[in-house]
Amino acid sequence: MKFEDGESEAGVFGPGVFETLWESLLPVGRDAGTGGYRRYSWTEAEVGCRAWFARNATELGLGTDYDGNGNLWAWWGRPGPGAIATGSHLDSVPDGGAFDGPLGVVSAFAAIAQLREQGFRPARPIAVAAFTEEEGARFGVACLGSRLLTGAVDPDTARELRDSDGVSLAEAMQAAGRDPALLGPDEDLLASLDAYVELHIEQGRALAGLDAAVGIAEGIWPHGRWRLEFTGRADHAGTTRLADRHDPMLPYATMVLAAREAATRHGALATVSKVTAEPGGANGVSSAVRAWLDARAPDEATLGLLVDEVGAAARAAAEQHGVGLGIRRESVTPLVSFDPGLRGRLSAVLGADTPVLPTGAGHDAGVLAARLPTAMLFVRNPTGVSHSPAEFADAADCQAGVAALAAVLASLASD
Ligand code: GLV
Ligand code: MN
Ligand code: MN
Fold it and tell me: Where are the beta strands (DSSP E) in 178-323?
C-alpha cells in the first residue's frame, strides 16, 4: 500500500457536491449505443473510474491508498485502528446501469463533504472503499476484491482466472501497472476496520411499495454461479441424421428449462443469461456450449437442492444425447444476516420506522460480513430495474441516501 496523505480541508466542492461528482462519473465507460455501462475490471473504462476516484478523493482532501487486491481506499484521517468504512464498487455488468455500485461511492464522498461542511470532526478514521470486480463480469468470480481481501479466494487461483479472451487477472493487473504478486488477504487492513456500511440502489421495488426513500438491509439470500460446459461433436446441419448427432445445444436447452422449473417449485430464482456456442456457425451442429447458471434461494438447503436438481437434469440430458458435461462452481456466497447490533444502530439513527428488507443481490458487504460488522442502506428504485441501462433513482432519493449515510457515519465515528 502506498498511502498519499490528504489535505485537512475539502477542496473545490460546494453544496452541489453529489451532483458534481455524479455528473463527472456518468460519461466514463458508457456505451453510446445502448446507454449502458461496460466498466469491466482493469479495462480502460474501469481504470478511468479509478482515476475519477483518486482525483475526487484528493480534491475532497482525503488521503488515497490501494490495497494489494486493487481495491481503492480514500481516508478521512490517517488509516488506522477503529476505522469506519463505507463505499461500494465502480465496475459494472455488461450494459449495467449508472447506479449499481457508483451510487455508494459517490454518496460516500458526498456524505463526507456534507459532514465537513457541518464542522463534524470524526473521532475515528473514515474510509471510502471501491472494491474491484464486484460483478465478476470479467473474471467470473463475484466480489473478487473483497473475497481476496478476506481470504475467501485463493490468490494463486485468482491470478489464473481468465476473461473471455483468455487474458488472466495477473496479466490484466500487470497491464494496468499493478503487481499481482500482492494479491491475498490483508489482515492488518481488516483489523483496522470496525464496521463497513455500504449504500446501494435497491434492486427491487420494496421501498417503492412502502413509500420510503431509504431502507436498511436485513440480509442477503445465499447465491452463486456455476459454469456448465456441454461438449458434443461439430457436424453438418444439412447432412447429419438427427439420430447420429451429439448436439450440446439440446441438453443445454433442457438445463435452462429445468432451472426455471426448479426455481418456480422451490420459491427461488434461477437465471441462465450468459451462453456461448462453438464454433458458432448457423449451418452446423455445435461442438460445445458453455452456459452460466445463476441461482439464489431464501436458504442454503434450498439453494443446494435447486442446483443439484438442475445438475441432475443436465447430466441426464447430456447422457441421452451422447454429450459430455463438466460443471464448475465459480462463486458462492452463503446466507448473510447483517450484524444485528449495527443494524440496530442504523435504525436508531434513521428512525425505528425505517424499512428493513432482505435482498437476493450480492454485495461486498455480504463478503465482509464474515470478518467484521457490516450493514447496508438501500435507496429507493421506483421501477426496481437493475443490471440494465434503465436502472434509475430520483435525485431527491439520492440526496436522502447521502443524508442517511452522513448521519450513520457521524454516529459511528463519534465514539
Ligand atoms: C450483483 O449485483 C449480483 O447480485 O450478482
Ligand atoms: Mn450488480
Ligand atoms: Mn452492486
Answer: 193-201, 214-220, 223-231, 235-236, 269-278, 284-285, 288-296
**How far, rounded to the nearest angstrom, does the alpha carbon of residue 258 sit from its chain's CA centroid?**
27
Checking DSSP bridges between strand 356-359 and strand 214-220, what pairing results, if any?
Answer: parallel
Distances 32 to 21, 29, 38 between C-alpha atoms, Å: 20, 9, 11
Angle at 163 between CA 90 and CA 129, to 5 degrees: 20
CA of 91 to the centre of ligand 1 (A): 11
* Ligand 3 midpoint to CA 79 (Å): 25
Q: Which ligand is nearest to the CA of 391?
A: 2
The tens-digit pLDDT sequence of the chain (415 residues) is 455 656 544 444 556 999 999 999 999 999 999 999 999 999 999 999 999 999 999 999 999 999 999 999 999 999 999 999 999 999 999 999 999 999 999 999 999 999 999 999 999 999 999 999 999 999 999 999 999 999 999 999 999 999 999 999 999 999 999 999 999 999 999 999 999 999 999 999 999 999 999 999 999 999 999 999 999 999 999 999 999 999 999 999 999 999 999 999 999 999 999 999 999 999 999 999 999 999 999 999 999 999 999 999 999 999 999 999 999 999 899 999 999 999 999 999 999 999 999 999 999 999 999 999 999 999 999 999 999 999 999 999 999 999 999 999 999 999 8
Longest dimension (CA), the chain: 78
103 Cα to the center of ligand 2, angstroms? 12
How far is Cα 359 from Cα 365, in angstroms, rounded to an integer? 12
Q: Ligand 1 in contact with 413 (CB < 6 A)?
A: no
Contact (CB, 8 A) for 348 and 317: no
Cβ 361 under 6 angstroms from ligand 1? yes
SS3 66: strand
> pTM of the entire structure?
0.94
CA distance 274 to 225: 11
Q: Are 258 and 310 in contact (CB under 8 A)?
A: yes
Tell me: cis bond preceding 355? Omega within 30 of 0 counts.
Answer: no
- Euclidean distance between CA atoms 130 and 101, whole angstroms: 8
Listing DSSP states for 339-354 in one string gives -HHHHHHHHHHH-TTS
Cell 464542522 maps to which residue?
A: 119
Q: What is the DSSP string of 69-82?
A: TS-EEEEES-S-TT
Atom of ligand 1 lying closest to residue 387 CA? 2
Question: What angle separates helix 17-25 from helix 44-59, to the nearest 10 degrees?
Answer: 160
